[in-house]
Amino acid sequence: xxxxxxxxxxxxxxxxxxxxxxxxxxxxxxxxxxxxxxxxxxxxxxxxxxxxxxxxxxxxxxxxxxxxxxxxxxxxxxxxxxxxxxxxxxxxxxxxxxxxxxxxxxxxxxxxxxxxxxxxxxxxxxxxxxxxxxxxxxxxxxxxxxxxxxxxxxxxxxxxxxxxxxxxxxxxxxxxxxxxxxxxxxxxxxxxxxxxxxxxxxxxxxxxxxxxxxxxxxxxxxxxxxxxxxxxxxxxxxxxxxx
Length: 243
Prior knowledge:
The protein is mainly beta.
């Protein structure tokens, strides 16, 4: 599954990459995105827009928004069947902007964090589904889940699942409200491993409190984890990596 990721490019780059006309004014690069945070997705309601939605889908029928903590991912094999995801999959799909994601490889009693990116380091899109939930006072929350699929050979030594990364030529199909289910299901597959790479990173990424460029720097003996004095941005209480 996918429990942490990054999107470090400026908004102008995302506008160009995803041909989006509208964007949030409070956008900033992100190095260690974790569930429940407001992060950029691309939707198309006549024209493409970049919006900030909460990670962790809250179904429109949910009684309590806390269900979103359990809905950060949707299995691509069953997304069209599960009650929580069936309608969003049919009616409200989105592109989740990213330039890398994290997985933790078990090595004995420890886990080593890895960052997985395109070799080009260009932005890409996870396949996402979203829904709108309204509380009793009328406040709306737009939230999303990232689809996952079986791991490519590149990822298998690290984790058995990976997020669905859409090929650029398939993004328009994913956003097309008239796309057929069979068309969409064909897009749910591992991304070509020849175009991707994985490298180990510092353990500072283990904590959601750490939101610095150090999170994406390749780890080596000459590049040890950042000391406790390193600058951080506190975004939410610390959590364990989701695997």
